[in-house]
Amino acid sequence: MDEFLQLIVLVSKLLWAKAAAGSFALGVLIEVLFQNFWVQFTAAVLIGMFAVKMIELAIRYYYYHNFIHRKLKNSLGSPADLDLFLQTSMKREISRGLLPNLKHLRSRLIQMRSTELRLFHTYLRTNTRTMKNGKPVGYAIGILIGMFTSFAMDILHLEGLSFSQESTVKTVLLLLVWFVVAHLWMNQRIRAFAQLDGIVLACLNEKLHDPFEPDEDPSDDPYFEEKILKEHS
């Protein structure tokens, strides 16, 4: 029995020694890798994108929580408002393919009255216009994040700020990457609004030209809200 326990202790020591040696070698490898600028650059960008995503999720959670508890006085300007509308009224399901998804969305939208579709169309157009006009702000935020990343990576120093050839190239590369990220994110939002608005307009035209659809008001202009917005923009 004593020999068996000694054997277990010996095997445990061997395994611990191998694990310690492996972890030491892995730590040395990670340390060597993180001395490379491109590894640091990739890690900084990924960590920055993760942090931005967490902030976005926190903002959405704030609006979701306040929406559920009826603490929002006006949710139309919230970034989660459209998501809440899609989840509650259109009952988003698992993707079944492009055409089935479009048919499913059309079946939901076609149940709305023409006035409701025009209001939704105005909402989407307003958000699209807001996103397009807000592009300079988005680009400025991307540039600020790039500058902050440069300081965090110790490329630039707050004390005795100076630009060498190396620090300038690295900082410009970070600014360019975050500029592209901001550009792609804003274009994705604009494209989503435009695609959804196209389906809304298709459903609205279908209802307006449907002889079996009761007229709400013959004098109604389907693009009345859009004209009002153009007059006051």
From TrEMBL:
Q: Which residues cross the membrane?
A: 37-63, 137-156, 168-186
The source's superkingdom equals Bacteria
**Which keywords, in A-to-Z order, does the entry hold?**
Membrane, Transmembrane, Transmembrane helix
Output this protein's name.
MotA/TolQ/ExbB proton channel domain-containing protein
